[in-house]
């Protein structure tokens, strides 16, 4: 285990590596009781380094060193080299040399799931960010890029499939029933992109013809029991490859592209060059076992990892401070791809919901950091929503400012200029500047300043002059280590609507041609305050602000409830229609939190939702999203000192009122969206199922017997997991205890042999305030299907309970906090990465009302005081408790 007092690493202290590695030759001997790793490095001093006499320092972690040789000569410990902490240090080396290191590791005992480990009898690797040092000694940093040749030797019966990066160049049989395969990757890559898989897997094969006419061999490897669940992932891969050629001009470069599904995996997937390793939940799908959301998630993740082939692999990050260079850019690319494959408006809503609920919370919390952090202790703690989602929004803003043509010109220049290099976010922005002629100097603040900007908007209308003035003031709140923020460069899209919902011309100059004025503009905010004047208006308009969510900011404007209902019905921007509905619901719910004795719920809310349920002209996928009330997590984030129980009670009160008032409309909606044809994963079919299951959930919330009967019928007759899970979730969240218990038992009996479905079964209970109170959660941890070694199982119970079942987790007696602290401490000894991520709900203790915060702090202090605290958890806990 690493030291429990990690050192802080600073971007300002970056130095180029003293040594470069041109070629790596690896030989793995895999056995049941461990693995012997032979590593031969061809090393030379870096001509760009000023440390001419620096010793060679190689990173290691939990390695048993067996042999070290320099240019074929054995080196002696103490005399020729030292093991200092976890590092191998050789004081005297020539300018250019060959270094051989042999290490022994034990993959079967590797519960951290970093480096080389075993999952369900399969050998696999996870090397990002610093896992390669758990395999062999190496300068484990992303700016050391080398060509790899890898030979894998293993028992042929238990490991008939042997995979690594690149192309298969040699294979054969060995003595004692063993065999080998040699792989060669022609492209230089950092060590974090190294991959190895060995096991008993079946192969699903297909081909893809590139735009230049090359045939690419596509393979997905899974356990035999999952052979029938690969078709969707394969189709998603081919769609991704075609889209990247058409939209970015990026053609795949190797002869083969492989995906492997692994049950035990800390992340969603990993983009290792030519050999992507995926969490099984992000690959396997069938109509019987995966929901619509799972199908969409798989398509997005397959695309994300494939797109990394260029935005991350061919051009990689110089150091881990630049992580968003590859992740933010690639999230933007996969988000655009998903929008093109489905409903762009719904995709935008989903992205912004995650951003405003979770990333804004991160920006306001103790672990707040810029998109390009200035420092870190443990890099695995910085695989955050700020790096990924906010990083993607920063790229999206560049796209908005430049327009699609100049953005494409900039991305072409970026890939051409930096192919085969490890670079920085500044290099990315510079390519965009050079291609477009735009000065993005101020825009770079988005990479350096943490926090979510707040835009306070006020307006005034001058009837005599027909002039509408819009004043926008921006501020960026203080965050840990950063105060006195500078104004940022913000693209602000808006439109103005007339009394009948017509889009009004946006004429910024008096006396101009109203006919030729656009009805939507992107204003560029660069100062602390701007006032914009719109001329030629005959009456005061209703503003439609921050269309498409053109920047990751909070907008403060005093919309009336009448204006919000108006925007819900008339705004031509689908995102802002949804956003108006969210703001209206938030306003009504917050009024009940503040005045719980209020008996009447705003009638306009029922009218707005009734209009939605009856509107067949709107995109039904958008209607499905608009019918979903703001989540408790979002409502908590909006509150200054949230009382979780009051928020939960008020939201339920509104939901019950809506469901009761709209009972007949909900039943009609349910039947109107019932499907009898073949199951399809299309935007239209997904929207129908979403509407149907939303209506069903609302009916069960008011314990409607008709709804109960519909749910039971749907559960027994459904031909797909979306409808089956929709019915199960509705029953689990109802007061029909007997039906709930039987449905859960029958569901498990049917799907107990499918790990991914069992994870859904765990999660549907863990997220329910009716079925997921603490005693039930503890019972799930004792269930035979639960596995403490499997991150997915842990996330589906502990993670879902603390992150989604907020009323139960924030029980006023503090039992939920104590429970989470106990599980985090337990996990820290086996998988510190997962422990550090699970503790996150406790880190926001300062956010809550005093009755909650003191108990949350006590639970966090219990984690802090755990003996042998890992470096991962140390950083998160200590930063959270500071001050």
Low-confidence stretches: none
Instruction: Quote the beta fraction.
Output: 15-25%
**Helix amount:** 40-55%
Q: Based on DSSP secondary structure assignment, what is the total number of beta strands?
A: 31
Rounded to the nearest angstrom, the distance between the terminal CA atoms is: 28 Å
What's the story with the biggest beta sheet? 8 strands, mixed
Structural class of the secondary structure composition? alpha+beta
Radius of gyration: 28 Å
Shape: globular
Q: What is the mean predicted local confidence, pLDDT?
A: 96
Show the helix and strand layout.
Layout: E1 9-10, E2 19-31, E3 34-45, E4 56-59, E5 64-70, E6 73-74, E7 82-84, E8 87-90, E9 96-105, E10 115-119, E11 122-126, E12 145-155, E13 161-164, E14 167-173, E15 178-190, E16 196-199, E17 202-209, E18 215-222, H1 231-248, E19 256-262, E20 269-270, E21 275-279, H2 292-307, E22 316-317, H3 323-341, H4 344-363, E23 375-376, H5 385-402, H6 404-418, E24 422-423, H7 425-436, H8 445-448, E25 454-462, E26 467-475, E27 490-497, E28 521-525, E29 529-534, E30 542-545, E31 554-556, H9 561-570, H10 574-594, H11 603-614, H12 620-626, H13 632-638, H14 644-661, H15 663-672, H16 683-701, H17 705-717, H18 721-732, H19 737-751, H20 755-766, H21 774-781, H22 791-804, H23 806-809, H24 815-828, H25 832-838, H26 840-843, H27 850-864, H28 871-881
Parallel strand pairs: 2-12, 18-19, 19-21, 22-24, 25-31
Antiparallel strand pairs: 1-23, 2-3, 3-9, 4-8, 5-6, 5-9, 7-8, 10-11, 11-16, 12-15, 13-16, 14-15, 17-18, 20-21, 25-26, 26-29, 27-28, 27-30
Helix pairs in contact: 1-2, 2-3, 3-4, 3-5, 4-5, 4-10, 4-13, 5-6, 6-7, 9-10, 9-11, 10-12, 10-14, 12-16, 14-16, 15-16, 16-17, 16-18, 17-18, 19-20, 20-22, 24-25, 24-27, 25-28, 27-28
């Amino acid at each position: 285990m690493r030291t429990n007092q990690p050192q802080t690493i600073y971007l300002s202290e970056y130095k180029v590596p003293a040594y470069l590695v041109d070629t790596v030759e690896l030989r793995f001997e895999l056995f049941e009781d461990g693995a012997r790793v032979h590593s031969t490095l061809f090393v030379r001093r870096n001509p760009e380094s000023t440390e001419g006499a620096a010793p060679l320092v190689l990173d290691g972690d939990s390695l048993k060193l067996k042999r070290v040789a320099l240019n074929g000569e054995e080196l002696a410990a103490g005399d020729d080299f030292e093991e200092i902490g976890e590092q191998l240090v050789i004081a005297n080396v020539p300018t250019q040399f060959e270094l051989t290191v042999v290490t022994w590791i034990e993959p079967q005992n590797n519960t951290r799931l970093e480096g080389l480990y075993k999952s369900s009898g399969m050998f696999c690797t996870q090397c990002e960010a610093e896992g390669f040092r758990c395999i062999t000694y190496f300068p484990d940093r992303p700016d050391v890029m080398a060509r790899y040749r890898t030979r894998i030797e293993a028992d042929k019966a238990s490991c008939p499939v042997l995979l690594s990066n690149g192309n298969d160049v040699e294979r054969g049989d060995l003595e004692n029933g063993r065999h080998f395969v040699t792989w060669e990757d022609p492209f230089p890559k950092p060590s974090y992109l190294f991959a190895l898989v060995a096991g008993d897997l079946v192969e699903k094969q297909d081909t893809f013809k590139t735009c230049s006419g090359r045939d690419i061999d596509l393979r997905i490897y899974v356990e035999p029991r999952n052979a029938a669940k690969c078709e969707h992932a394969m189709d998603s891969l081919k769609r991704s490859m075609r889209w990247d050629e058409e939209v970015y001009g990026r053609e795949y470069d190797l002869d083969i592209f492989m995906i492997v599904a692994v049950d035990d995996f800390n992340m969603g997937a990993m983009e290792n060059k030519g050999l992507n390793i995926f969490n099984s939940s992000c690959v396997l799908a069938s109509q019987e076992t995966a929901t619509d959301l799972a199908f969409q998630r798989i398509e997005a993740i397959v695309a994300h990892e494939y797109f990394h082939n260029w935005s991350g692999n061919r051009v990689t990050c110089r150091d881990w401070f630049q992580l968003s260079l590859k992740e933010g850019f690639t999230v933007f690319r996969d988000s655009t791809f998903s929008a093109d494959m489905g409903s762009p408006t719904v995709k935008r809503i989903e992205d912004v919901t995650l951003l405003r609920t979770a990333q804004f919370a991160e920006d306001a919390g103790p672990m707040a950091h810029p998109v390009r952090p200035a420092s870190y202790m443990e890099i695995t703690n910085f695989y955050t929503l700020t790096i990924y989602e906010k990083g993607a929004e920063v790229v999206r803003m560049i796209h908005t400012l430049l327009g699609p043509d100049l953005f494409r010109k900039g991305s072409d220049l970026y890939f051409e200029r930096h192919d085969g290099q490890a670079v920085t976010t500044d290099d990315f922005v510079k390519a965009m500047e050079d291609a477009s002629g735009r000065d993005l100097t101020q825009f770079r603040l988005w990479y350096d300043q943490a926090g979510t900007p707040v835009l306070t908007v006020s307006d005034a209308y001058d009837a005599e002059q027909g002039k509408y003035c819009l004043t926008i003031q921006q501020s960026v709140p203080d965050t840990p280590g950063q105060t006195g923020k500078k104004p940022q460069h913000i693209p602000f899209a808006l439109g103005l609507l007339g009394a009948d919902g017509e889009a009004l011309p946006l004429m910024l100059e008096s006396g101009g041609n109203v006919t030729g004025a656009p009805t939507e503009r992107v204003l560029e905010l660069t100062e602390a305050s701007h006032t914009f004047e719109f001329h030629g208006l005959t009456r005061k308009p209703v503003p439609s602000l921050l269309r498409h969510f053109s920047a990751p900011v909070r907008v403060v404007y005093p919309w009336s409830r009448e204006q919000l209902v108006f925007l819900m019905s008339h705004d031509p921007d689908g995102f802002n229609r949804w956003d108006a509905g969210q703001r209206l619901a938030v306003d009504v719910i917050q009024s009940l939190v503040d005045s719980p004795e209020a008996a009447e719920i705003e009638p306009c809310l029922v009218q707005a939702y009734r209009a939605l349920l009856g509107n067949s002209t709107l995109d039904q996928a958008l209607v499905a999203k608009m019918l979903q009330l703001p989540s408790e997590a979002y409502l908590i984030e909006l509150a200054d000192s949230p009382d979780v129980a009051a928020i939960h009670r008020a939201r339920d009160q509104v939901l019950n009122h809506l469901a009761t008032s709209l009972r007949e409309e909900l039943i009609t909606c349910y039947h109107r969206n019932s499907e009898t044809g073949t199951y399809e994963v299309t935007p239209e079919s997904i929207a129908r199922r979403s509407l149907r299951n939303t209506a069903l959930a609302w009916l069960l919330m008011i314990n409607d017997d008709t709804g109960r009967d519909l749910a039971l019928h749907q559960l027994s007759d459904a031909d797909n997991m979306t409808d089956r899970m929709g019915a199960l979730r509705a029953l689990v969240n109802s007061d029909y205890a007997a039906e709930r218990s039987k449905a859960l038992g029958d569901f498990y009996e049917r799907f107990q042999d499918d790990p991914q479905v069992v994870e859904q079964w765990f999660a549907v209970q863990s997220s329910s305030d009716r079925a997921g109170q603490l005693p039930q959660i503890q019972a799930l941890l004792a269930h035979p299907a639960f596995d403490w070694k499997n991150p997915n199982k842990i996330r589906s119970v502990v993670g879902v309970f603390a992150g989604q079942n907020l009323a139960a987790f924030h029980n006023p007696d503090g039992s939920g906090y104590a429970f989470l602290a106990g599980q985090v401490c337990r996990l820290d000894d086996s998988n510190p990465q997962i422990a550090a991520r699970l503790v996150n709900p406790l880190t926001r203790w300062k956010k809550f009302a005093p009755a909650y915060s003191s108990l949350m702090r006590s639970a966090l202090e219990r984690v802090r005081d755990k003996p042998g605290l890992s470096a991962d958890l140390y950083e998160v806990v200590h930063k959270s408790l500071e001050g």
